[in-house]
Amino acid sequence: xxxxxxxxxxxxxxxxxxxxxxxxxxxxxxxxxxxxxxxxxxxxxxxxxxxxxxxxxxxxxxxxxxxxxxxxxxxxxxxxxxxxxxxxxxxxxxxxxxxxxxxxxxxxxxxxxxxxxxxxxxxxxx
Amino acid sequence: xxxxxxxxxxxxxxxxxxxxxxxxxxxxxxxxxxxxxxxxxxxxxxxxxxxxxxxxxxxxxxxxxxxxxxxxxxxxxxxxxxxxxxxxxxxxxxxxxxxxxxxxxxxxxxxxxxxxxxxxxxxxxx
Lengths: 126, 126
Prior knowledge:
The structure is a homodimer. Chain A is mainly α. Chain A has helices at residues 3-9, 20-33, 36-46, 55-60, 66-78, 97-106, 118-125, and strands at 52-54, 82-87, 90-95. Helix content of chain A is 55%, strand content 12%. The first copy, chain A, has a three-stranded antiparallel beta sheet. Chain A is elongated. At the A-B interface, helix 2, helix 3, strand 1, strand 3 and helix 6 of A face helix 2, helix 3, strand 1, strand 3 and helix 6 of B.
């Protein structure tokens, strides 16, 4: 199953426990986000008015080698957070909003917040 | 700065690029989520009616050793996703909804979605 499909089919963490397949897929996406450079790259692309960023502009924002930046971009593409398109000599990157939106929904809290308080705690400890 | 503070002070990824300090803090939390077992543990605790789960119930849900589960729980506590409380012989775990909510907000899309389309692409390539 595609990662985006797994995200779409997974309930919010606060609704019910994830199964193994769901957890394995989602963990791949969060692992990709678990790196400061990749998070900054993603935020540069995601926040760009116009929606796409030339790889040259991404490389210019970091004191890192081109292969290192390329590796991070590849990881973000593999988990479906970015897409790319080559035009003339440059590659342009674009956010996949569906993936980001599904991740956000996974972590969302129920409108009323989780059930807490002494009465609930008693019910659990039985 | 505490991780929750960093999360609270960070803009959504789609609004503006993260700075290095924000990215370093947020990456720690996503790295904690980048493991299937930790995601399943978090979903078990987050979805539990009553809001807390005995460590014994968490261990029973996996075919993993107690020390392995303890390690994963420690990682989730260190990044502020879970808290724990010892009562009698057992430790009880509880979600920190603020941390989950801030993470969700970080990944949220703007109401209208990112600006895309040919006109926007032309504006960027100038």
